[in-house]
Amino acid sequence: MTSGLRTHRVVSESVDERDLIAARRVLDQESAALSALSRQLDGRFSAALEILAKVRGRVIVGGIGKSGHVAGKIAATLTGTGTPAQFLHPNEASHGDLGMITEDDAVLLLSKSGETDELADILAYAKRFAIPLIAITDNPESTLGRAANVALELPAVAEACPTGLAPTTSTTMMMALGDALAVALMERSGFSADHFRVLHPGGRLGVALLQVRDLMRTGAEVPLAPTVTPMSEVLLVMSAKNFGCAGIVEDGDRLAGIVTDGDLRRHMSPGLLELTASAVMTPDPLTISSDSLIAEALALMAGKITNLFVVDDGRVVGILRLHDCLRAGAV
Fold first, then answer.
1. Which helix (H) or strand (E) holds 33?
2. Residue 34: pLDDT above 60?
3. How far is CA 189 from the centre of its chain?
4. Any alpha helices (H) in the chain, and if so which ranges?
5. pLDDT digits (tens, 9 = 90+) for 86-128
6. pTM for the whole thing?
7. Domains of the chain
8. Whole-number mean pLDDT of the chain?
9. Which of 70, 39, 73 is CA-nearest to residue 136?
10. Span between the terminal Cα atoms of the chain, in Å
């Protein structure tokens, strides 16, 4: 029985190694293709970007088969990064959906060969109404390539599958080129994390892109006491506000320090309650601004701090609790 188990283990390891060799070959081949694509980029990429940057409507992205799946992803990436886009299925376009393309739009079509019959009606429509057309293809002299205002050419590299037929390397390059267009447009337009947050309010990503002002406590909830306050009163503030700390301020609302449970333990003595807040506080505590991202606040807390005072222009405007970040799903 033991011998049989040992034999099975050896066979499994042998098969795994062959699988790994195949997987690495694919990844190396596709990586080399992306490097070739990067080296081949030229003024045509800039020309395509000019067209997309000037679009007043949407970028209509289309393709058939595997190219269609990539086109859908490119449309989603463009939309999520500030360039309104929509996927158009070529077959549906021929049965009425051409109506979604307006003269304010631009069209981006994907086809490895450039001779995809299903794209013919979109090509004719774009030409008829002078709608800018960008092609991604490995044959700029194809029907699609010649019809396009700009043809972004894919390097002539083999597909990664053993037969050389299944779209693998070519679709990887198409998707990467779509990402390159989307990111370059982001940088041109100054698309920021704030813009990203507006378009991605859901899920962990949306929560991490919230700003501190969205979760901080303000007004009477903030535990504050002047530097001259006796510690007997500071303890009352800490107990009443239930944050486990108090911000010690001077000149009304300028944060001078913080008193925490740890400070109380370090100064524990019969005379503690006779001391002033300034004698017990830890000066210059970590703070964060209200327009910082929650992700930045969490990095500052780093599992050691449970509260951060929020300071704008030197003045305390709120306090951020780790518990509130947890409740919002940011951690």
1. helix 2-40
2. yes
3. 16
4. 2-40, 43-53, 66-80, 90-93, 120-128, 143-147, 169-189, 193-199, 203-208, 212-215, 231-241, 261-266, 277-280, 294-301, 322-328
5. 999 999 999 989 999 999 999 999 999 999 999 999 999 999 9
6. 0.62
7. 2-191 (3.40.50.10490), 212-328 (3.10.580.10)
8. 89
9. 70
10. 49
